Amino acid sequence: MSYGDAMTARTRSGARRAEIVRAALEVIAERGYRGASLAAVAERVGLTQQGLLHHFPTKEALLVAVLQERDRWDAMPAGRLRLDLLASLVEYNAMRPAIIQTFSALLGESVTEGHPARAYFTERYTGVRAAMAEVLRAEYGERLPSGLTPERAAPLLVAILDGLQYQWLLDPESVDMASAFRDFLTLLGEADA
Asked: Does residue 55 contact residue 17 with C-beta atoms inside 8 Å?
């Protein structure tokens, strides 16, 4: 196989993997991880289950690829995240309910013993809390107006973000995530929230 043929094959394989990840995201959003099957994902992209296993050898490998892809979509360079940008992220999330639904469903399922995404979410939340502590430290220094340290307030900030998502998913007509988050910023003392 020539170099050009190998590059073309690799590009096709990468495009097929991306298509499979998107389909898996849809199936998981509809059925949850436990209810999603490799056969359903394969059917959605026009493959046999064996063909899908060529790209992702296990359901767990596909789940990790879905979660990693979601994180890539939301990635922000280190040190670039600010409290006011979090409000923009909440507004952005309100425009992509399927992604938020999938993430929330997987998060909820991951708290069960033996779930393949449990380690991923545990590690992810360790990093998210640390990032939120840095965001709060950049805004307020070592103490928030309430007297809490950024490390003590970070889990509360994450709880607000995730809790608003769950409430919004359950009743989008009654819960305006972006407005509620701006209200929370007002509670923190952000004058122009």
From this structure: yes
Can you tell me the distance from the alpha carbon of 110 to that of 125, in angstroms, rounded to the nearest whole number?
12
Q: With beta carbons less than 8 A apart as the criterion, state whether 24 and 66 touch.
A: yes
Q: What sign has the CA pseudo-torsion 17, 117, 80, 162?
A: positive
CB atoms within 10 A of CB 161: 18
Query: Which tokens in the block code for residue 172?
Result: 């989008």
pLDDT at residue 161, as a whole number:
94
Cα–Cα distance between 180 and 161 in angstroms, integer? 10
Q: pLDDT under 50 in the chain at which residues? A: 191, 193
What is the reported pLDDT for 55?
A: 93
Q: How far apart are CA 53 and CA 1, in angstroms?
A: 23
Structural domains present in the chain: 1-72 (1.10.10.60), 76-192 (1.10.357)
How confident is the model at residue 193, as a pLDDT?
46
Instruction: For residue 75, give the 3-state DSSP assignment.
Output: coil
Q: Would residue 36 be called left, alpha or beta, if left means φ above 0 and alpha means ψ between -120 and 50 degrees?
A: beta
Q: Answer whether 88's CB lies under 8 Å from 73's CB.
A: no
pTM: 0.74
Residue 10 has a pLDDT of: 67
Q: What is the pLDDT of residue 138?
A: 92
- pLDDT value of position 7: 56
